[in-house]
Structures are given as structure tokens and as C-alpha cells.
Amino acid sequence: MRLARASGLWLVAGVTTTVLALPIVVLVGRAAIEGSLGLTLTSRLVIDALLLSLVTSGASLVVTVCIGTPLAYLLARRRFRGSWLVEGFVDLPIVLPPSVAGLALLFAFGRRGAIGPVLEAAGLQISFTTLAVVVAQTFVSAPFFIRAARAGFQETNRDLEDAARADGASEWAVFRSVTVPLANAALAAGLILAWARALGEFGATIMFAGNIEGRTQTLPLLVYSEFQSVDGLPRSTAAAAVLVLAALAVLVAVRALRWRPLFA
Questions:
Q1: Quick one: DSSP state of residue 178?
Q2: Angle at which helices 233-259 and 2-33 pack, to 10 degrees?
Q3: pLDDT (tens digit, 9 = 90+) per residue, 232-246?
Q4: What is the Cα–Cα distance from 4 to 58, expressed in whole angstroms?
Q5: Which among 250, 246, 254, 91 is positioned nearest to 185, based on CA atoms?
Q6: 109 pLDDT band (50/70/90 cuts)?
Q7: Buried b vs exposed e over 211-245: b needs ≥16 C-beta within 10 Å?
Q8: What is the mean pLDDT of the segment spanning 187-194?
Q9: pLDDT band at residue 262 using 50, 70 and 90 as cut-offs
Q10: What is the pLDDT of residue 244?
Q11: Domain ranges of the chain
């Protein structure tokens, strides 16, 4: 009976793993076998989309760190009236369908959105620009960093912080020299996850920024566009394989950070 149960568990685990792994292996394998990966990566269209993805996801990451770190620290260390509401809004983009997120951004910051006319009067147009790509990526990816950073700040040893304060260190010095190094593994994992989410963003981007070649067409949007074209399947496959490899690299990095701190 025990042997039968063990065999059943292994069977279910094997089938599940196969179902999850097979599409990824086939996609990358097809790109490699067809030889489209190397040729496609030299295409001007793919290079432009890749560079735009790297630039916008990098900019999104900078914004996320600047706005997400203080918020994560506040949520981790302070209980205040309405904190549950703030936490709800932070987590909401994770569960929202990306297309809904894009539509919400359009209604808020589009030319005819809630504050769009005010922005336009100030000479700033966000929707259907490269800036819109950054905004969309930040909206969907920031929660991943904030959640990880909040957990990291909650788990730090506060006795060490109190000792630094007792030695006369300012709050900023304590945060910079004690709190952040103690939480660095969680912060780094959050950064990696947020960057990966921004790099792979599709739905919110196409709704809020459009799919304009050389301007808002990131790599995920290129995969979609080339798949729809008559002879674009090899380019679509190769671009998708690049995103898969990037995702695998992110998973490896995050798992490595679970076992050791980022800094010695």
C-alpha cells in the first residue's frame, strides 16, 4: 500500500512537471534547432525592441526603488490607520489582469483621463509614449519589490539598530548602514523579481502605451506582432526564447539569494 502511494505521488509529480516544462523546452528547442535565434538577434527590429525593453525596465526599476523602499519600510515598521488599505492597493496590481491595469492607467493618465488634461496643460503627455511604457512597467512590477522589501525589513534584527542609535547614529545612518545590509537579500530578490516582471510586461503596455515600433514596442510586444505577421514566426520564436532564458536566469538568481546574502 505504501509503495503504491509513493508510485502514485511520483506519477502525479512527473505528469505535472512534464506539462509545465514541455512548452518551455519545445519553444527554446525550436528556436535553437531552426537556427533562428542567432539570426533574429541581429535583426534591427529585434535589437531595437530589446534595447527599449532594457532601458524602460531599468528606468522602471529605479523608480520602483525610489518610491517602493520608503513605502515598504513604513508598512513594515509602522501601524497606522488605513495601513490595510495601502497594503491592498500595493498588492492589487499583482492580481489585476494586465489589460485591466492598462485601461486603468489610460483612464487616469491618458489625454482624456482624470488628470490627463492637467498633465497636457503642463506640457506632459504620457499615454502612447516611451514614458507610458515605464509607467505601465512600474505599476505592475513595483508590488513585487515592495512585498519583498517589506518582508526583509520586518525580519531584520532591531537590537542591532538600537545599538547603532545608542552609539549616536542618526536614523538615516542606521537605515543605510544597518537596516539595508541586514535586509539586502530580500531587497535584491525583490529587485530581480520586479525587473523580470517589468521586462515581460505586455497587457498594460499595449493598452496604455500602444505597440509603436521604435517607440513603445518592447520585446513582448514584438513577439505578439511578429506572430501575427505572415513570415514573422521565426523572429517571434527567437524573441520569446530570449524572454524565457531571461526568466530562467531570474529564477536561478532568486533561489541563490535565498541561501546567502548579497554582501558578505
A1: I
A2: 130
A3: 787 788 888 888 888
A4: 51
A5: 254
A6: very high
A7: beeeebbbbbbbbbbbeeeeebebbbbbbbbbbbe
A8: 91
A9: very low
A10: 87
A11: 34-259
Residue 201 grid coordinates: 510586461
Determine the number of helices (DSSP H) and then strands (DSSP E) in the chain.
Answer: 14, 0
CB 30 within 8 A of CB 235: no
C-alpha cell at 101: 491595469
Determine the topology of domain 34-259 in CATH. MetI-like fold (1.10.3720)
Query: What single DSSP character describes residue 129?
Result: S
Q: Over 90: is that where the pLDDT of 165 sits?
A: no
Q: What is the mean pLDDT of the chain?
A: 86
CA 126 vs CA 20, 117, 118, 188, 209: distances in Å? 38, 11, 11, 29, 8
Cα within 13 Å of Cα(35), Cβ side: 0
Task: Return the C-alpha cell found at 259.
Answer: 541561501
The residues, ordered by sequence, that sit 6+ positions from 161 with a Cβ below 8 Å of its Cβ are 174, 178, 179
